[in-house]
UniProtKB/TrEMBL annotation, chain A:
Pfam families: BPD_transp_2 (PF02653)
Topology with respect to the bilayer: Multi-pass membrane protein
Transmembrane annotation, as ranges: 12-34, 56-77, 89-106, 112-133, 145-164, 191-211, 273-298
GO molecular function: transmembrane transporter activity
Annotated protein name in UniProt: ABC transporter permease
GO cellular component: plasma membrane
Keywords: Cell membrane, Membrane, Transmembrane, Transmembrane helix
Compartments where found: Cell membrane
Organism: Xaviernesmea rhizosphaerae
Highest taxon in the source lineage: Bacteria
From TrEMBL, chain B:
Membrane topology: Peripheral membrane protein
Pfam family, one: ABC_tran
Record's protein name: Heme ABC transporter ATP-binding protein
Localization: Cell membrane
Signal peptide location: none
Domain ABC transporter residue range list: 5-240, 257-501
Cellular compartments per GO CC: plasma membrane
SUPFAM superfamilies: P-loop containing nucleoside triphosphate hydrolases (SSF52540)
Main location: membrane
Sequence similarity: Belongs to the ABC transporter superfamily.
Species of the source: Xaviernesmea rhizosphaerae
Lineage: Bacteria, Pseudomonadati, Pseudomonadota, Alphaproteobacteria, Hyphomicrobiales
Keywords of the record: ATP-binding, Cell membrane, Membrane, Nucleotide-binding, Repeat, Sugar transport, Translocase, Transport
InterPro entries linked to this entry: AAA+_ATPase, ABC_carbohydrate_import_ATPase, ABC_transporter-like_ATP-bd, ABC_transporter-like_CS, P-loop_NTPase
Single annotated GO MF: ATP binding
Automatic annotation (TrEMBL), chain C:
Name recorded for this polypeptide: ABC transporter permease
GO CC, any one term: plasma membrane
Taxonomic placement: Bacteria, Pseudomonadati, Pseudomonadota, Alphaproteobacteria, Hyphomicrobiales
Organism: Xaviernesmea rhizosphaerae
Keywords (A to Z) from UniProt: Cell membrane, Membrane, Transmembrane, Transmembrane helix
Cell membrane recorded as keyword: yes
Membrane topology note: Multi-pass membrane protein
Compartments, as annotated in UniProt: Cell membrane
Length: 350, 508, 330
């Protein structure tokens, strides 16, 4: 992911914009195939995302979890770790925060902090075992964290429906107490402090990688592990730490979503935000500041897609198709070419 | 004249760089023709053109008297050419016979006919007196055996002209001698051998004709009998190079690094070091000689904390270091110039500054309270660029934009200024052209004069002869013996490199 | 009781064979890419897109064979895109694989709405399932155990017969040999004029073929319907199996039987009243635990060193072995 530093951000930006253009063109073809007008789809998306201040707030509301998950992914990518398990960490963090929110009664600020703390711990704990096996035995973290996602989703559903179901409710926990609510920013929207948390996190993460010794160590481990080891950096400890922090931020995203938006945990509570975050981070080439913009882009797509089902015949999942096409187009570009020699022998460590 | 291969006017450019420039090469049938030159002189490019792996920009190729376009290895092979690459291309999980017939499998009813392949391997092996077991798996075979299989692979394709690229780099002197005997027998059977090397001794030992390349041009083609070693060096380098011993003062510093009965395993869990003991004093250069792959890399790795020891002791200034992590050993005063510089020595995608920073990224003046002062880092890198004459535009250049020699200078600059008083230097001049080698040798001598204790690992005897106070010879993970650098007996070293115990030498 | 217990066992075995089939098919497909040195995380998406188009094809052509062909073609198209990006453009395998999985998910849902006007799933509407193969005489010879070998859909037989076939391919055919060489030592292939790219394309397309069969089996086999994300992680479990089997057909079979059994067993548990969410998590947990356990086996140094030392001590050169094996630090 260090290619960003090596190739210059202007070149990167140009490459990504080009990729987005290609993806939108391909997306249009698919939209035509399902007998809908691409123009109408894109116009509807734009209207749904930026039509009025309420819509813009809605976009930012969708942006928040994508941004925080994106930062989680950036942290992993910089340290050479593919944390595909952010989705699972998000779910567990969301549930943990909800549990603190409804099961305990605490003073306002403290309540939020306690709930967030447990969300963070839950996210980190969920990635701890795959992280341990990754650094100790080289177990591929992509597969282990993906499998862990399925378990996390089922486990939180089990908690919600069998252990903590709201009496009379339907697959959701009791609501959290108001003392655990994240403050809202505007009266007309559920948009809340979470957005500012995400922005602050992006800037802190960027500064961490740019200016701190620890950030330097992580970057070296990610881009040249043998070199880092030789230079006296404990590669395993850094790798473990990177995944743990990435998982913690994933948990935080869940906490923000629970305390800021839903005020309870429910089945299927934030589907796909973890993956969207990963895609946003990849599109930003692992740059936390870049992720602010890519997350906003994906947040707008998501918010816009809500209107899509009302105003067009297309399904809102068409935006997932567009996101996937963007990543495919980006991956084909020089910028994301994998390191390695001509035969491309970066063999995966199993 | 009966020419096996006739290249004329071959020119090959890569962008602005001209790798081969108007090269003429005529190889007579039935001779061993050596092509010698420094790294980067264009030997490999030329052979790749002959073998169809690259296309020349200008010039013609004639094989067996016929001028032709060789646009793929298949064409070259069809004309009776065979190439034994420097890095063997055998598949470890397959058997010897499978490897030999890979790409030209004998098939029956669409399935590979194992028995027939093994039978033909056996008959080839007998015909050319290259003994192999056709059913053995290649994994775990010795390097000499692997080379034998590579040669059989070429012979199985009916090659009459065999090109060998740096064939002895990985062989013991004994294995090299066997190889030369085999090559001589090929020539006696009327075959032709083209032999690429940068190793003077063996070129003098085995070839009939020598072509010297320098900077992509042919500087001479002469019968070997008309050449002396010193003349060859002058042709290769373009001037007289002194491999003479560097003048030096007396050494009687304190023992800085001490190793006792050290045993280490390699990646395959086999013993790579067997009861190694040595000591290095301050102001002394101790050289480690040996054919690559006899435990030298493992020795460097275990001493710098990158590899666990299974048994033994190593002390740095009296402090046990075997259980310490690399960072603690660095802090204890050991600097390490790794042999595998592209993987261990640098992060090629990172800037020179970021490369310089490693190991000192938590220390003042480069970092305070965990925050890096990049202007101090860039400033120091500028200083090093000037002091070590590194050819770069500035500290923010990515390392990969530099040449191999300059990358090595970055590594040396970093390690020599790291504050360590024990220097572990593995292959300081591998892949570095001769002009730059002298500068590196100067710097190593300067470090010695400043009282550093230096353990110098090199596969190049010339280098050790010039620099080392004492030379230890390693073979198969053991130290076979030691010789004084000032009065070094190359024959004795050669025998020890091949595993002959010095105690047995008088009888031999 | 004795009889009942026996029946229960056979029923569980039959269920295991059924649940093993899709994951075995997709894992055998992945075996080609694994052996060719490609880490293919996109199996899930290939399976899903094939399941969807098998249903569409079956409705459109009115035949299960037509459905099968169209489903497999969709998977092949995905495999081709994967190969173009990974082999020709040298894109990152994980990124491309994940993106194709996401694409398959989004596309099937979008098309579901566009074609059938529904969300969630499509049932009935003239989907033709795969026929069941009755082996003549099986019932007479084996009695009730006949259901172990007879009465499955054709793809079940294809899956299990493919195991010996793949062993033959890898060991005795040129293509199989080249796939192994390209994965194990690409520079050897290159030096001999074997096109690495062509072999990797081939491996990827073979992978798409098998993943397509797996997908078709999911939607046209024992249940004839398509549901959103119905592959539900089987492609990822297959990748887990491929990691610890290194693509070896026999080990792939062993791993798939384990998961097939876990799947069948968890369904059984559900009928005993265990919470369905926990039961559904069983196969994923088995995959994860197996992944961890087998990578742990790969490493513990002290254990392996000891085993190696003993092995060497027992091998050809007793004199050498003594010298090579120092007592490890106690």
């Amino acid at each position: 992911m260090r290619t960003l530093l090596a190739t210059g951000w202007a070149r990167t930006l140009a490459g990504q914009l080009f990729a987005i253009a290609i993806a939108l063109a391909l997306g249009s073809v698919i939209i035509l195939l399902i007998d809908e007008s691409p123009v109408r789809v894109f116009v509807t998306l734009m209207r749904g995302a930026f039509g009025d201040s309420e819509k813009i707030a809605g976009t930012l509301l969708q942006t928040t979890p994508i941004l925080i998950c994106g930062i989680a992914a950036c942290i992993g990518l910089r340290g050479g770790m593919f944390n595909v398990g952010i989705e699972g960490q998000l779910f567990l963090g969301g549930f943990a925060a909800a549990w603190v929110g409804f099961a305990f009664s605490l003073p306002p600020v403290l309540h939020v902090l306690a709930a967030m703390a447990l969300a963070v711990v839950a996210g980190a704990a969920w990635v701890a075992i795959p992280a341990f096996f990754r650094v100790r035995f080289g177990t591929n973290e992509v597969v282990s964290t993906i499998l862990a996602n399925y378990i996390a989703t089922l486990l939180t559903s089990y908690f919600t429906i069998f252990l903590f179901k709201r009496p009379g409710g339907w697959s959701e926990t009791p609501p959290i107490l108001e003392s655990a609510y994240l403050p809202e920013l505007f009266s007309f929207s559920r948009l809340n402090l979470g957005l500012l948390i995400g922005l602050a996190l992006a800037i802190v993460t960027a500064a961490f990688f740019r200016w701190t010794s620890a950030g330097y160590a992580v970057t070296m481990v990610g881009s040249a592990p043998k070199f880092a080891e030789y230079g006296g950096i404990d590669v395993r400890r850094v790798g473990f730490g990177v995944l743990l922090v990435s998982g913690a931020v994933g948990g935080l995203a869940g906490g923000v979503e629970t305390l800021g938006v839903h005020h309870r945990f429910m089945e299927g509570f934030a589907p796909g935000f973890g993956f969207d975050g990963l895609i946003a981070a990849l599109l930003a080439n692992g740059s936390p500041v870049g992720t602010i913009f890519t997350a906003l882009f994906f947040g707008a797509l998501r918010a816009g897609s809500l209107l899509l089902e009302v105003d067009t015949t297309a399904s809102r999942e068409i935006i997932t198709v567009i996101q996937a096409l963007i990543i495919l187009a980006v991956s084909a570009d020089l910028i994301m070419r994998r390191r390695g020699d001509r035969t491309g022998e970066r063999r995966w460590k199993f | 004249m009966d020419l096996a291969v006739d290249l004329s006017g071959i020119t090959k450019r890569f962008g602005a760089f001209t790798a081969n420039s108007g090269i003429d090469l005529a190889v007579r049938r039935g001779e061993i023709h050596a092509i010698i030159g420094e790294n980067g002189a264009g030997k490999t490019t030329l052979m790749n053109i002959l073998f169809g792996l690259l296309q020349p920009d200008e010039g013609t190729i004639a094989i067996g008297g016929k001028t032709m376009i060789v646009d793929s290895p298949a064409v070259a092979i069809g004309q009776g050419l065979g190439m034994v690459h420097q890095h063997f291309k055998l598949v470890p999980s397959l058997t010897v016979a499978d490897n030999i017939f890979l790409g030209m499998e004998i098939r029956r009813n669409g399935l590979i006919d194992r028995a027939a392949q093994e039978e033909r391997t056996r008959s080839l092996s007998e015909k050319f007196r290259l003994r192999v077991d056709p059913r053995e798996r290649v994994a775990g075979l010795s390097v000499g055996m692997e080379q034998r299989i590579e040669i059989l692979k070429v012979l199985a394709r009916n090659a009459r002209t065999i090109i060998l690229d740096e064939p002895t780099a990985v062989l013991t002197p004994q294995e090299s001698r066997d190889l030369f005997r085999t090559l001589r027998s090929f020539v006696d059977d009327g075959m032709t051998v083209i032999f690429i090397s940068h190793h003077l001794e063996e070129v003098m030992a085995v070839s009939d004709t020598v072509t010297v390349l320098r900077d992509g041009r042919v500087v001479a083609t002469k019968p070997k009998s008309a050449l002396s070693k010193r003349e060859l060096v002058r042709l290769m380098v373009g001037r007289d190079v002194s491999f003479d011993r560097r003048p030096r003062g007396q050494t009687n510093g304190k023992v800085a690094l001490e190793v006792e009965d050290l045993w280490v395993r390699d990646d395959r869990q086999l013993a790579a070091l067997k009861s190694v003991s040595l000591s290095v004093r301050a102001g002394e250069i101790v050289g480690i000689a040996g054919v690559a792959g006899n435990g030298q890399t493992e020795l460097a790795e275990v001493l710098s904390g990158l590899r666990p020891a299974s048994h033994g002791r190593a002390r740095l200034h009296g402090q046990d270091i075997l259980d310490l992590p690399p960072a603690a050993i660095r802090a204890g005063g050991l600097a390490h110039v790794p042999g595998d510089r592209m993987v261990r020595g640098v992060d090629r995608t990172a800037s020179l500054s970021a490369n310089m920073l490693i190991g000192r990224h938590r220390r003042a003046p480069f970092a305070r309270a965990g925050v890096i002062d990049w202007s101090a880092v860039h400033g120091e890198m500028w200083t090093l660029i000037r002091r070590f004459d590194i050819r770069a535009r500035g500290p923010e250049d990515p390392a990969r934009s530099l040449s191999g020699g300059n990358i090595q200078k970055v590594v040396l600059a970093r390690e020599f200024t790291a504050g360590g008083d024990v220097l572990l230097i593995d292959q300081p001049t591998r892949g570095v052209d001769i002009g730059a080698q002298e500068g590196i040798h100067d710097e190593i001598m300067r470090q010695r004069a400043e009282g550093r204790a230096i353990l110098l690992i090199s596969t190049q005897l010339d280098e050790l002869k010039a620099l080392a106070d004492r030379i230890l010879i390693m073979f198969d993970g053991r130290i076979m013996g030691a010789v004084d650098g000032a009065a070094m007996d190359e024959d004795a070293i050669g025998l020890m490199m091949a595993g002959v115990d010095p105690a047995d030498m008088t009888e031999a | 009781m004795e009889v009942l217990g026996n029946l229960f066992n056979i029923a569980l075995l039959v269920a295991t064979i059924r649940t093993t089939t899709p994951i075995l098919l997709v894992a055998l497909g992945g075996s080609f890419t694994t052996k060719a040195g490609i880490f293919n995380i996109g199996l899930e998406g290939q399976m899903l897109i094939a399941a969807f188009f098998a249903v569409v094809g079956s409705i459109y052509t009115g035949s299960s064979l037509g459905g099968l062909l169209i489903g497999v073609s969709a998977a092949l198209l995905f495999a081709l895109i994967y190969a173009v990006l990974v082999v020709s453009f040298r894109a990152n395998e994980v990124v491309v694989g994940l993106a194709l999985n996401i694409l398959a998910g989004g596309m099937t849902i979008s098309l579901l709405k566009a074609i059938f006007g529904t969300r969630g799933s499509v049932v009935g509407r003239g989907i033709v399932g795969l026929p069941k193969v009755q082996i003549p005489g099986a019932r007479d010879v084996m009695g009730s155990s006949a259901q172990l070998i007879s009465g499955f859909t054709p793809l079940v037989y294809v899956a299990f017969l493919a195991v010996p076939l793949l062993i033959l391919v890898y060991n005795r055919t040129q293509l199989g040999l080249y796939i192994r060489v390209v994965g194990e030592k690409p520079e050897a292939a290159e030096a001999l004029g074997i096109s690495i790219a062509r072999i990797r394309y081939g491996a990827s397309m073979l992978c798409g073929l098998f993943a397509g069969l797996a997908g078709a089996h999911m939607s046209l086999g024992y249940i004839t319907m398509f549901t959103e994300n119905m592959s539900s992680g089987r492609g990822f479990m297959a990748v887990a199996i491929l990691i610890f089997s290194a693509g070896d057909p026999l080990k792939v079979l062993a791993g798939c039987l384990l998961f097939g059994f876990a799947d069948a067993f968890s369904l059984r548990l559900q009928s005993f009243g265990f919470p369905s969410y926990l039961v559904l998590a069983v196969p994923y947990s088995v995959a994860l635990v197996a992944l961890f356990a087998l990578s742990w086996r790969g490493r513990p140094k002290r254990l392996r060193e000891t085993a190696e030392t003993i092995r060497r001590a027992l091998s050809v050169h007793p004199a050498d072995a003594g010298r090579d094996a120092p007592a490890s630090r106690s």
